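Table 4 source record.
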Amino acid sequence: MYTADRLWEEAVYLAYHLHWPLREILDLEHPVRARVIEEIGRIHGRLDSGAAGPAQIF
């Protein structure tokens, strides 16, 4: 079940990291929001592990 609390958690996470307006975030379909969140996590994982410098993130 996809709860309102989970939606807010995703929206706030994306707003914090991407500085997108809430309306744009809420307009995304759930699979798209989930994919963007996953990619942000991967980027942070690479940065935290020191595996990539800022220019090598992508």
